[in-house]
Amino acid sequence: MTYDELAARLQHDLDTLTPSHRRLAERVLADPEGVAFMTVTDLAAAVGVNESTVVRFATGQGLAGYPGLAELCRERLREQAQLVRRFTSATGLDAATDGDGRDLLATSARFDQANVVRTLTNVDRATWTAAVAALAGAPRVHVLGLRKSHAVAYLLGYLLRMVRDDVATLGTGPGTLVEELRRVQPGDCVVGVAIHRYARATVQGFRWAGDHGATTIALTDNRASPLARRADHTFLVETAGVAVLRSMTGFTALVQALANAVAVELAPSARSTLAAEEDLLAAFDIYDVGD
User: Fold this and answer.
1) CB 142, CB 185: distance < 8 Å
2) Per the domain annotation, does 102 fall within a domain?
3) Among 47, 60, 62, 271, whose Cα sits 20 to 30 Å from the Cα of 289?
4) Same domain, yes or no, for 214 and 277?
5) Domain shared by 47 and 130, yes or no
6) In a domain, 240, yes or no
7) How far apart are CA 41 and CA 84, in angstroms?
8) Would you say residue 114 lies in a domain?
9) What phi and psi values does residue 169 have, to the nearest 5 degrees?
10) Residues 70 and 134 placed together within one structural domain of the fold
11) HEC profile for the chain?
12) Do residue 130 and residue 72 come from a single domain?
């Protein structure tokens, strides 16, 4: 079994696990890097269960006790390191760019560079193809993200409106989400954006859209996310940041790549949409172009 196979099984079974096993599964899904270096005692204490429960949880997944679980998590770390090395080698980037670790600017740059690399290299190509097709072909696209995730949702909605019609960013006004969700119809595409802690309205709106026949795409931070558990297509985004603030740079890179892919998918109609946009911008003298 690989870590990805284990994660897929845990994600599928999450709602049927006992409370203690569910807490363990959520920890393994959300923080495999941490689990990789924990002892059985550490993990039991972190999740609030006894050590025998951890062992039963691991063996119940077909693993050789807790050492088998920890080894799977370590294998994932090694795979991630190889992906980053291959990607940075191919692009000429160096995720370990020099800089004093005490230099906040340099440290932030290294974190964000690594987040982008890990996010994009881990995109499943079949998921990518299906999501781009849904974003390009759905009658309407609705993008939902609240609180910290709202900026990402707004950016994706803005970029998609540049290359196709009938794109709405939901929840932009106070108390408007319920009314806006009424416009979601079967066959539409709904994109949900959320990171821990997940805004309740985002989770509820995303679930409602899926239950009413919309194709759902989740942009979120780990497999235990309530969006990932309900999505047709899921993209997991790395959010490691400096100090207490989590980084949204991986989200920004991903939504820009998605919007570009939709533009390519819709060419030449996307070019016509962009041309019409430029004509309107010029007619209304939107930008200061200087003397």
Assistant:
1) no
2) no
3) 271
4) yes
5) no
6) yes
7) 31
8) no
9) -95, 120
10) no
11) CCHHHHHHHHHHHHHHCCHHHHHHHHHHHHCHHHHHCCCHHHHHHHHCCCHHHHHHHHHHCCCCHHHHHHHHHHHHHHHHHHHHHHHHHHHCCCCCCCCCCCCHHHHHHHHHHHHHHHHHHCCCHHHHHHHHHHHHHCCCEEEEECHHHHHHHHHHHHHHHHHCCCEEEECCCCCCHHHHHCCCCCCCEEEEEECCCCCHHHHHHHHHHHHCCCEEEEEECCCCCCCCCCCCEEEECCCCCCCCCCCCHHHHHHHHHHHHHHHHHHCCHHHHHHHHHHHHHHHCCCCCCCC
12) no
Q: What's the full length of the chain, in residues?
A: 291
The answer to whether position 22 is within a domain reads yes
Structural domains of the chain, count: 2
Domain span holding position 151: 125-282
Same domain, 140 and 217: yes
Give the lowest-confidence range in 1-15, 35-49, 275-289: 275-289
Q: What are the pLDDT digits (tens) for 81-93?
A: 666 665 555 555 5
pLDDT in tens, 202-245: 999 999 999 999 999 999 988 888 899 889 999 999 988 776 67
Nearest one of 172, 221, 226 to 199, comparing CA atoms: 226
Residue 67 and residue 129 in one domain: no
- State the residue for tokens 């821990």: 196
CATH number at residue 232: 3.40.50.10490
